[in-house]
Design a protein that fits this description.
alpha/beta; binds S-adenosylmethionine
């Protein structure tokens, strides 16, 4: 925790501390400024402009064959080091690209696939009809609430999704409450520090920014695995 605090600038540290002690409906780190808008929704969180949500009509893109090389999903899931009985929330699950892979690793546990688009969750249910992923439960979340019971999950993963959350503070507050003490958060985002990563800027995040935003709700940065071609795999922990 000390190392994280050393990284925080004073204004951001004050915001983080304020969040610990207030139940603000709107986090003070939010700013809506249409004049500063670039390609996102014109709402900023701790200086980062939030991107638009990827619509369900583009779901095929999530299953493109090239993604295996670009995002190495099986290696990502292997690096989550899941125990067979764990409960894992896949937040912003989309069509279940990661949910089904995780489901195979938690044969005695469960995957809670959360998304705000019912059409995405319907794609997961359709795939389950083939007999796979029987331990995946879909949950229709709200833009500001993952709708997970408190103290119910061992881990949460968000792949290429967090930068789309229009209410990142409320979402992460909900994830934090849902985690058991010692629970882990796996945050995968395209590397914002790397101009050679061929992704639009608002669909990327720097590690520094991610650590700041997770610290607001009390998540501690544990490590970042940088084995992926274009993404950070950042791991955060809820203190015990
Ligand atoms: C780019 S897709 C990624 C899907 C999936 N994680 C994957 O890697 O294939 C992002 C998903 O996040 C979802 N999303 C956006 N905001 C959300 C929120 N507040 N809560 C839950 N899901 C959200 C979108 O509906 C979309 O399905």
């Amino acid at each position: 925790m000390i190392s994280i605090l050393k990284r925080l600038s004073v204004p951001f540290l004050l915001l983080a501390l304020a969040a610990q002690f207030t139940q603000a409906a709107e986090h003070p780190g939010y700013l809506v400024d249409p004049e500063r808008r670039t390609t996102g929704i014109g709402k900023f969180y701790m200086g980062r402009e939030i991107s638009f949500v990827m619509g369900h009509l583009a779901a095929d893109w999530l299953n493109r064959p090239g993604r295996i090389m670009e995002e190495m999903p099986d290696e990502v899931v292997a690096n989550m080091n899941l125990a067979p009985d764990e409960v894992v929330a896949d937040i912003g699950a989309g069509s279940g690209y990661f949910s089904f892979r995780i489901a195979g690793k938690v044969s005695d546990g469960e995957v809670l696939a959360v998304d705000i688009q019912q059409e995405m969750l319907d794609l997961i249910v359709q795939r389950q009809a083939d007999g796979k992923g029987g331990n995946i439960r879909t949950i229709l979340g709200a833009i500001d609430d993952p709708r997970l019971p408190e103290n119910s999950i061992d881990a949460a993963i968000m792949v290429d999704a967090y930068h789309e959350f229009s209410h990142p503070f409320e979402m992460m507050d909900g994830v934090y409450r849902a985690l058991k003490p010692g629970g882990r958060v796996f945050l995968l985002e395209y590397r914002g520090e790397d101009a050679s990563v061929p992704i639009r800027p608002l669909h990327k995040m720097t590690q520094e920014q991610a650590i700041l935003e997770m610290a607001v709700v009390g998540l501690e940065w544990s490590e970042t695995l940088d084995f992926l071609p274009w993404q950070h795999m950042m791991i955060f922990t809820k203190p015990k």
